Amino acid sequence: MDVRLCTYAELSQEPNFKQLIAAYADEAALVGMPAPNPDYATYAKLDQLDTFVVLGAFLQGKLVGFISMYVVQLPHYSELVATTESFFVDSQYRKTNAGHLLRSRARMEAQQRGAIGIFFSAAIGGKLERILAASKDCNRTHSTFFERFGE
Fold first, then answer.
1. CA-to-CA distance for 56 and 12, rounded, in angstroms?
2. Distance between the two ends of the chain, CA-based, in angstroms?
3. What pTM was estimated for this model as a whole?
4. Do 71 and 113 form a contact (C-beta atoms < 8 A)?
């Protein structure tokens, strides 16, 4: 398993990227949000920032998972923290250690950028939520709620 820094543009060029994004949406879509529709122009701008980090997990050259995160300062705490935007491993590759390796590399990248910790978002009742809840390294701190306007 190879986990490496990528740009979003590089990931989006992988032959199975759209299938992974669709599987991710099926498993972890945000209730109340429209169907995912990646804005490649915005991701291209984010790729230029050191505050946006994208990692890909590759098995024999095939993309099997990814994580993207922001590393920004929280003004209220005057500290840098990382926050995941996306974290997904294709279900057929979850026993390959890809998720663990992605998470470890994300922690390392965040620390190298000066972050004091990392926030993970996980779908309620999903596999990632169960893994993070059982982790001795993670603390459940808040629940996130979404209110859609105009509905």
1. 11
2. 44
3. 0.90
4. yes
> By the 8 A CB rule, do 17 and 77 touch?
no
Contact 72, 83 (CB under 8 A): yes
For the segment 72-108, what is each residue's pLDDT rounded down to a tens digit? 999 999 999 999 999 999 999 999 999 999 999 999 9
Please report the beta strands in the chain, taking only residues with DSSP state E, as ranges in sequence order: 2-6, 52-59, 62-74, 79-89, 118-119
List Cα–Cα distances, 37 to 10, 29, 33, 70, in angstroms: 17, 11, 11, 19
The amino acid that residue 70 corresponds to is Y
| Core vs surface per residue 19-32: b (16+ CB within 10 A) or e | ebbebbeeebeeee
User: What is the per-residue pLDDT across 32-64, written as a single tens digit (0 to 9) for each?
Assistant: 888 888 898 999 999 999 899 999 999 999 999
Backbone angle region of 24, left / alpha / beta, with phi > 0 → left and psi within -120 to 50 → alpha: alpha
Tally Cβ neighbours within 10 Å of residue 63.
21
Residue type, 28: A
